[in-house]
Amino acid sequence: MHSFSTPRRRVLALAGCTALAGLFAPIAAQTQPLASYPAKPVRLVVGYAAGGATDVIARLIAVKLSEQMGQQFVVDNRAGANSNVGADIVAHSPPDGATLYLFTIANTINATLYDKLNFNAQKDLEPVGLIARVPNILVVNPKLPIRSVAEYLKFAADSPNGITFASSGSGSSIHLSGEMFKMVSKANMLHIPYKGSAPAVTDLLGGQVQSMFDNTPSSLPHVQSGRLRAIAITSARRSPLLPDVPTVAESGYSGFDVQSWFGIAAPTGTPRSIVDRLNTEINKALALPDVKRRLGELAATAEPGTPEQFRTLIVAETKRWHDVVKASGAKAE
């Protein structure tokens, strides 16, 4: 048996260490970016144009994440097809945490509204965390003799073609809020779709249409000025901004709770450590007094929680709106 000399032992030991280093190098390469995440600016894709409630909420949270995580979070507006354009971009982006998506109620509606999509929101997007909820309000032109849900139903029953309700487009959450109310109340209602909330509200103010289940931030200024009359709010609880306006549930339809909501998602396959880090930072931001105050100005309620809770909401809402879309016969425009 031959014995190795000390120099040769050192050479073999060094070779062994080099081999081990090569073996564990891929693991180090995978874990290093996670420890320093985010190592570069993060893009937050919003499926709507700048200026709307979705965009405002996205920018609010992006600013706070930038401050907290020491890296810039940049909002990228990719409007089109009721937010499907933006969702498609993120669903097919690398799952490295560099591209995120502002996931909304629209994505759960679109799953049924559109016959064919290039992605599956439940399978291709990973829930990170819910940000906020915003109720809708049933508003009418104040020239109408309607001051309650009961009077709304009576007016609808007495109208040959039913009471008209405007929306920002067929299949929008505004449209389907009305359709859900129509389903539970059996009201005689006629849907009038518009290309956006702004023209719908304009015609409501002018009396060309009679009512609308509008997002609260859009109609609130007109309610406060007296140009529109708020009849009911669609959330389970009253809004602090409209404390005298009853809920639909209070008005005879127990359990009625319809709200728009906004959260952040990442491409499926994003490492759990990145998802958890983002979730922690989102919840931290939502606890800040200035964030709560700004959300309150938008009639929104902060909704901190876990990725699992957000996933449960997405699954439940997808099922809920599938049933409403099918019952209403709504089609993508």
CATH-defined topology of the largest domain: D-Maltodextrin-Binding Protein, domain 2
CA-CA gap between termini: 84 Å
Shape: globular
- Helix tally equals 12
- Can you say what the CATH homologous superfamily of the largest domain is? Bordetella uptake gene, domain 1
Mean pLDDT: 90
Q: Kindly state the number of beta strands.
A: 10
**Cα-based radius of gyration, to the nearest Å:** 25 Å
CATH architecture of the largest domain: 3-Layer(aba) Sandwich
Please mark out the parts with pLDDT under 50 across 5 or more consecutive residues, or reply none.
1-33
Oligomeric nature of the chains? single chain
Structural class: alpha/beta
Overall helicity: 40-55%
The fraction of residues in strands falls at 15-25%
**Order of secondary-structure elements:** HEHEHEHHEHEHEHEHEEHHEH
Textual characterization of the structure:
This protein folds into two domains: 42-134 and 259-328, D-Maltodextrin-Binding Protein, domain 2 (3-Layer(aba) Sandwich), CATH 3.40.190.150; 135-233, Periplasmic binding protein-like II (D-Maltodextrin-Binding Protein, domain 2, 3-Layer(aba) Sandwich). The protein is built from twelve helices and ten strands. Strands 1, 2, 3, 4, 5, 6, 7, 8, 9 and 10 form a ten-stranded mixed beta sheet that branches. It has 333 residues and is of the alpha/beta class. The protein has helices at residues 6-35, 53-69, 84-91, 105-113, 121-124, 149-158, 173-185, 197-206, 216-225, 272-286, 289-297, 307-328, and strands at residues 42-46, 73-77, 99-104, 125-140, 163-167, 189-193, 211-215, 229-233, 259-267, 301-302.
